[in-house]
């Protein structure tokens, strides 16, 4: 298993090493209108056909051509995506799940002094219909369980629930 992970890491490293410059920068250099679109997207109505006509013209192209453009634009980012996926897989697998009880819809755990965790994985039984609200810092983890209401709001739940928690370094 270790050899397989090391081989994957070596492959990702080689793919990243083959990339030239900042990932995605060549895309913005070759397609100036994408940069304009990015800058104007935060402005209400900033990406209308009269503000960025080349974007409007691109949207009017057949779906197959637009899809091909997007695949071509994303292709240089695929090695980066593979590397991130591998790193997240390693990180997620580094934590050992443990069962904990949330009494009254709350769970708190002090973290050992000097410990560093990068990720918290929390599993809740889907059938209970609860939504976790997680707060964490370098000393404490707090989980509050909320129940969705018919009006779309979330209300604190006071039931006792078993959770599966993993701290990943």
How would you characterize this protein structure?
This protein is of the alpha+beta class and 169 residues long. It has six helices and seven strands, in the order ααααααβββββββ. It has helices spanning 2-18, 25-30, 32-40, 53-59, 63-74, 78-93; strands at residues 98-102, 106-110, 119-123, 131-136, 140-148, 154-156, 161-168. Strands 2, 4, 5 and 6 form a four-stranded antiparallel β-sheet that branches. It has a three-stranded antiparallel β-sheet with strand order 1-7-3, with helices on one face. The radius of gyration is 23 Å and the shape is extended.
- Amino-to-carboxy terminus distance: 19 Å
Quaternary assembly: single chain
Q: What amount of the residues lies in strands?
A: 15-25%
What is the gyration radius calculated from CA atoms?
23 Å
Report the strand count: 7
Q: How is this fold's topology laid out?
A:
Elements: H1 2-18, H2 25-30, H3 32-40, H4 53-59, H5 63-74, H6 78-93, E1 98-102, E2 106-110, E3 119-123, E4 131-136, E5 140-148, E6 154-156, E7 161-168
Antiparallel strand pairs: 1-7, 2-5, 3-7, 4-5, 5-6
Helix pairs in contact: 1-6
Looking at this protein, list some descriptive labels.
169 residues; alpha+beta; three-stranded antiparallel beta sheet
What is shown here, in short?
The protein has helices at 2-18, 25-30, 32-40, 53-59, 63-74, 78-93, and strands at residues 98-102, 106-110, 119-123, 131-136, 140-148, 154-156, 161-168. Strands 2, 4, 5 and 6 form a four-stranded antiparallel β-sheet that branches. Strands 1-7-3 form a three-stranded antiparallel β-sheet, covered by helices on one side.
